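Need residues for this backbone.
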């Protein structure tokens, strides 16, 4: 009964094992008692018959008359010789089985000769075998009965646990107004477990609510200063007399402000997940956003000596929320820039989404799931990130109903693909 076996199976196996021990011990005890009683009673009976045979022979000088199933042998002169199959037996009671024939043998030695009494007992042997067959049948029936009873009881025991697991697994349990679980169960071990889940889920709901409120409040409050920064950049860029370096710095500030605005919009949308709020963000087509990202990232790839290409294989005509799509695409391009030292990076548009292919280090298979977790970075870390980019990508995709996956051959490059569905 290994620890990794399902609990229901372990309960059933415990029933069967207990029955094997108890019923097996009981059956073996019956067999041992039958043999003990048989030897004790038959020994006494054969001993009396042997005394009678010897007494009759000494008194009348002739063989004693015993029943047809019993024969008397003695080493006295003139007596029948003992058959070879009964020779060499120990003193006292013995049982001899020869094929279909069975005999009780009682031997006594005295005055330098041996007296032996042999009694046929095949009928008793047949009854004894029938008794043992009944015991064996009872043993097997008890084992099968224990298996059936164990399955039945295990199923009844596990039913409330399965129900509790289903309730805990249900996503509605994380909602603030989700009903408590403990009132649905009696005051027993399962009820205590439900109460523990209620307490833990309550703490989790509280933490999630605080995180949601913090993210929502911060995102909302940051929109105003970002708007001021963006407006100031527009005014300064329109001023005459700016040098080339000053205009370049203002362009960088404007782009950083736009990126921060998209992140704020993204976090605000994630914080409001599950709430209807149409019009929260602008929509954009895939090819238009890809062209924008190509223009923004091309200088960075060029500065690193990497070829960067935008390939349209028939892009989707749907429209998608601009901040979310821009954040997903820019994070994947940034990831490709950090982990590619030579070769090329390609942004490929398809009918169902887009792919970012690079010729970088690749991601080992055992890390392909972990890199989408928060604060997890690859074994060959680059840049100063905290390992939140790909985690944010997955959260956005889950919230939007998109799908992101990675295919990679170590030291040969990676391909991150995003399935956008049909859009709207």
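Answer:
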């Amino acid at each position: 009964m290994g620890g990794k076996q399902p609990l229901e199976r372990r309960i059933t196996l415990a029933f069967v094992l207990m029955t094997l021990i108890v019923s097996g011990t009981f059956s073996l005890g019956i067999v041992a008692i039958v043999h003990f009683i048989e030897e004790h009673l038959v020994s006494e009976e054969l001993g009396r018959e042997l005394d009678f045979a010897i007494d009759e022979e000494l008194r009348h000088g002739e063989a004693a008359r015993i029943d047809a199933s019993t024969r008397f042998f003695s080493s006295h002169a003139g007596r029948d010789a003992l058959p070879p199959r009964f020779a060499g037996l120990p003193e006292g009671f013995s049982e001899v089985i020869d094929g279909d024939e069975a005999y009780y043998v009682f031997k006594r030695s005295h005055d330098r000769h041996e007296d032996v009494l042999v009694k046929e007992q095949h009928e008793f042997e047949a009854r004894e075998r029938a008794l043992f067959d009944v015991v064996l049948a009872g043993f097997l029936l008890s084992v099968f009965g224990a298996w059936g009873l164990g399955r039945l009881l295990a199923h009844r025991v596990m039913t409330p646990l399965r129900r509790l697991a289903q309730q805990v697994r249900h996503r509605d349990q994380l909602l603030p107004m989700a009903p408590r679980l403990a009132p649905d169960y009696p005051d027993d071990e399962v009820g205590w477990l439900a109460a523990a889940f209620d307490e833990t889920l309550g703490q989790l709901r509280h933490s999630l609510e605080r995180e949601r409120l913090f993210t929502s409040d911060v995102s909302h409050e940051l929109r105003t200063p970002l708007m001021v920064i963006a407006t100031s950049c527009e005014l300064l860029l329109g001023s005459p007399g700016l040098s080339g370096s000053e205009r370049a710095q203002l362009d960088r500030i404007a782009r950083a402000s736009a990126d921060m605005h998209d992140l704020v919009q993204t976090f605000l949308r994630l914080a409001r997940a599950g709430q209807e709020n149409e019009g929260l963000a602008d929509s954009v087509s895939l090819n238009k956003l890809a062209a924008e990202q190509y223009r923004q990232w091309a200088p960075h790839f060029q500065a690193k000596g990497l070829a960067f290409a935008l390939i349209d294989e028939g892009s989707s005509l749907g429209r998608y929320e601009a901040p979310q799509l821009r954040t997903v695409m820019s994070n994947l391009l940034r990831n490709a820039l950090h982990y590619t030292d030579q070769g090329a990076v390609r942004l490929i548009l398809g009918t169902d989404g887009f792919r970012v292919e690079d010729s970088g280090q690749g991601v080992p298979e055992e890390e392909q799931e972990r890199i989408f977790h928060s604060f997890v970075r690859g074994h060959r870390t680059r840049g100063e990130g905290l390992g939140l980019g790909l985690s944010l990508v997955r959260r956005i995709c889950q919230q939007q109903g998109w799908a992101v996956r990675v295919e990679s051959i170590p030291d040969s490059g990676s391909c991150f693909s995003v399935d956008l569905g049909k859009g709207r």
